[in-house]
Amino acid sequence: MVKTAVVFFSHEGNTKYAAEYISAITGADLIELEPKEPYPRGKVSKYLAGKDALAHKMPELKDYEFNKDNYDKIVIGTPVWAGNPAPPINTFLAANNLSGKELAFFACSTGGNGDKCIDYMMKTAGANPDSLTLNLIDPMKKRDTAKLQEMEHWCLKILGSYETDELWDLYDADRNPTGETMNRGAEIPEGRYHIVVSVWIKNSEGKYLMSRRSMKKGWCPGAWETTGGAVDAGEDSLTGGVREVKEELGIDLDPSTGKLVRSVRSDGLQDFYDVWMFEKDVDISDIIMQEEEVSDVAWMTRDEIDKLWDEHKLHILLKYYKEII
Ligand SMILES: Cc1cc2nc3c(=O)[nH]c(=O)nc-3n(C[C@H](O)[C@H](O)[C@H](O)COP(=O)(O)O)c2cc1C
User: Fold this and answer.
1) What's the CA gap between 317 and 298, in Å, rounded?
2) How far is the CA of 82 from the centre of ligand 1 (A)?
3) For 285-317, what is each residue's pLDDT tens digit?
4) Helix, strand, coil abundance in the chain, percent, nearest 5
């Protein structure tokens, strides 16, 4: 499995927020850089910190665990300080020779000189000029769906091609079938979407059947979720959902009892994401987990699901769950 690291420094939390989101989606290890002498906050220090960045200073860092040989891809994130990377990134790049590695870079700014900052990091790291880059404007302070989708789309590119024989039908932005298909893992053509389903099963005690993604998955390994996945070519959304539940958990659902409780188009992930709700009592001991996909299953109350969310253990794309349960 491809192993990715997200190495970052953050002063006010924006770069950390983006790094955590990218790591949750790509399954990357998170490595936070911290200077031994933390930068103080406030206007004057901003001026001094900016001066350090302009001079490409290399402050001493607290110990961090990073061995480039453990990673196939390394993502580096920084706030933009006076048009440059924050100094802890200079220290990191000087201490680790990353030339020859597959690198990606992102910078968080209030809107000025993100590209210049990324350019400087790429040159210093000896990166391939075609490396993936992402320029974000204060992603935490100014949260919006478009920013999340931009990050999600970038994550798709970081995960890269893992093309398989599985075929998907493609739809236009209004969900009209185009008659086109594509192989799973290839780049989705612009203006085209495929269908993804998420299936919730509720029992008569009001608990929900949650499953844990296998650590072998490239996308959110180890996260708790409800069963689902991409709909195959020739299937409709409901048929795809029922098939996924059968494949991953060995449970037979009656399609006529499924209710569509949410359907949203994501321009970041280029999909229509349908959420189906079923009511069924299933004995956990009767569940046959598909080893490649699922590592654990449990019936959970809403409170238990809230706890998973608070502990960042729920699949990031299930962030809608409070709307439907
Ligand atoms: C010392 C300093 C210098 C900055 N210089 C710039 C700049 O040149 N251009 C810009 O757009 N934003 C600049 N900013 C704003 C930050 O880049 C921006 O708010 C970023 O999202 C902060 O990331 P963080 O929350 O991870 O620290 C500066 C902030 C600081 C503290």
Assistant:
1) 19
2) 7
3) 999 999 888 999 999 999 999 999 998 889 988
4) 30, 30, 40
> What residue's CA is closest to ligand 1, atom 28?
81
Over the stretch 223-246, which tens digit does the pLDDT of each residue have?
A: 999 999 999 999 999 999 999 999
Pocket test of ligand 1: the residue of 6, 8, 9, 12 to mutate, having most ligand atoms within 8 Å of its CB, is: 12
Atom of ligand 1 nearest to the CA of 136: 21
Residue type present at position 319 = K
Torsion of CA 117, 122, 123, 124, to 10 degrees: 90
The whole-model pTM stands at 0.78
Would residue 238 be called left, alpha or beta, if left means φ above 0 and alpha means ψ between -120 and 50 degrees?
A: alpha
Closest C-alpha among 214, 167, 163, 221 to residue 195: 167
Candidates 110, 119, 134: which one to mutate for ligand 1, based on the most atoms within 8 Å of Cβ? 110
- Ligand 1 proximal residues by C-beta, below 6 Å: 10-16, 46, 49-50, 79-83, 108-113, 138
Question: For the chain, where do the domains classified as CATH 3.40.50.360 start and end?
Answer: 4-159
Ligand 1 atom with minimal separation from the 137 CA: 21
Which pLDDT value is given to residue 312? 83
Measured in angstroms, how far is the CA atom of residue 113 from the centroid of ligand 1?
10
What tens digit of pLDDT does each residue of 20-73 get? 989 988 889 999 999 999 998 777 777 889 999 999 999 999 999 999 999 999
Cα(108) to centroid(ligand 1), Å: 7
The more confidently predicted of residues 184 and 278 is 278
Does domain 193-323 fall into CATH 3.30.420.250?
Answer: no
Quote the mean pLDDT of the chain.
93
| 59 vs 36: CA distance, rounded Å | 8
CATH 3.90.79.10 location in the chain: 193-323
> How far does the centroid of ligand 1 lie from the alpha carbon of residue 45, in Å?
12
Q: Which fold has domain 4-159?
A: Rossmann fold (3.40.50)
